[in-house]
Design brief:
The chain has 20 helices and five strands. A five-stranded parallel sheet has the order 2-3-1-4-5. By secondary structure, it is mainly α. It has a single domain, classed as P-loop containing nucleotide triphosphate hydrolases (Rossmann fold), CATH 3.40.50. Helix 1 packs across helix 3, helix 2 packs antiparallel against helix 11 and helix 12 packs across helix 13.
Length: 396
């Protein structure tokens, strides 16, 4: 016997979020309820969700709405947040399986660098404080949400380690603007993703992203932000308009590895909330979307409209050969000082996190209907632009 279906109606989502934040209803300027309706419609009509999937989807939408309400309200309570300057932030941008996650975690070890941590992104209010940043009770509250994931999809940790005090991606923060490729990664929502790809207001996403950084930075300053997500390729021109002095590490690898890894990750994550995940469909759907944003990134760089921004191209093969040497090159490219303490901490983290520490993520292109030669042909402009060499898919 089953109970009533978990509601994915917009008014129900908004009402629960308001209840969680003591009746707050001001979502601030910019689109939010319209894209919320778009993703909810897509979840209902295309998501193929099971009961658990509906619960996960509802909680994600309520959670992002709650965070949005907090950001807007805290800015009213603490107007000084608006005066925070975001100077020369470092962004790591690239496709999956190109070293972005481990590079972000390494850079976060430098005490001069400020990476958004999972707990403060999940529970941003009140603004975090330096004095209690490692003891805040929200850390434990955030950590309590992970065991269920470990039980349901134990292989996920090998693909993408999680933890309350690990660095969080901007793709999650974008959910508070209700515009993020994350939703179509976690759920099957192609109509919503079509909107993200073609019609979303990315200027608003980055306006709100800057507000988020100001909020998190207000009482916990460092010298610079280090941020990461491949989702920045969707709005790279707007990122540069918002942060014209950005320092961007662009990571590269044979796209066969990236596309196969992303299809594997997406299929695994969707399996938490759906009993009808088609890995071949996942790859067929995502590969052209990722191709378009990579080519768009190349076009933005060719335009050179932001002369104060600096790009550094990192090749995966060079990174895995010597991770710390690559970090040194990045610091030199961006003229960043590296203290002895920072070097010691980063070297220690590298030593303590060898490849495969949380298990090995194995995948094969044929499991997703991926033909390597066809992928390389589709991505030939990207491959030729960055001089990428094909890799042996058996080594993945």
């Amino acid at each position: 016997m089953t109970g009533p279906a978990v509601s994915l109606e917009r008014d129900s989502i908004l009402e629960e979020a308001a209840q969680r934040v003591n009746g707050l209803t001001d979502l601030g300027a910019g689109p939010f309820t319209e894209p919320l309706q778009c993703v909810l419609d897509s979840l209902e009509q295309e998501g193929r969700l099971n009961v658990i999937g509906r619960m996960i989807a509802r909680e994600r939408m309520v959670g992002h709405t709650t965070s949005r309400l907090h950001y807007v309200n805290d800015r009213k309570r603490f107007p000084d947040i608006a005066g925070e300057a975001i100077v020369k932030p470092v962004f790591i941008v690239g496709m999956p399986r190109t070293g972005t996650t481990i590079l972000h975690d390494i850079l976060a070890q430098d005490p001069a660098n400020r990476a958004p941590l999972t707990w403060e992104v999940m529970f941003p209010s009140p603004p975090p404080e330096a004095a209690t940043f490692r003891t805040d009770p929200r850390i434990a509250a955030c950590a309590a949400t992970f065991p269920a994931v470990d039980v349901q999809i134990p292989a996920f940790k090998a693909m993408h380690p999680m933890g309350a005090e690990l660095s969080q991606e901007c793709v999650t923060m974008m959910g508070d603007a209700m515009c993020t490729p994350l939703f179509h990664n976690q759920f099957r929502v192609p109509t919503y993703q079509d909107w993200v790809d073609n019609a979303a207001d990315w200027a608003h996403v980055y306006t709100f992203h800057r507000r988020q950084l100001q909020h998190l930075q207000w009482r916990n300053h460092r010298d610079r932000w280090v941020l990461k997500t491949g989702a920045h390729l969707w709005g790279l021109d707007h990122l540069l308009a918002t942060y014209p002095d950005a320092r961007i590490v662009f990571t590269h690898r044979d796209p066969v590895q990236s596309m196969t890894s992303y299809a594997s990750l997406t299929s695994l994550v969707r399996s938490m909330g759906s009993d009808a995940v088609d890995p071949v469909e996942v790859a067929d759907d995502w590969i052209p979307r990722l191709r378009r944003v990579l080519l768009r990134g190349i076009q933005v760089r060719r335009a050179q409209a932001y002369p104060n921004a600096i790009f550094y191209d990192m090749y995966f093969a060079d990174f895995i050969r010597d991770q710390f040497a690559m970090v040194e090159r990045i610091y030199a490219a961006f003229a960043l000082p590296m203290s002895d303490d920072a070097a010691r901490r980063m070297r220690a983290f590298i030593a303590d996190n060898p490849p495969g520490k949380h298990g090995i993520h194995r995948y094969a292109p044929e499991a997703f209907g991926i033909v390597p030669e066809q992928v390389r042909e589709a991505f030939h402009e990207y491959i030729e632009h960055f001089g990428l060499e094909p890799e042996d898919t058996a080594s993945a």
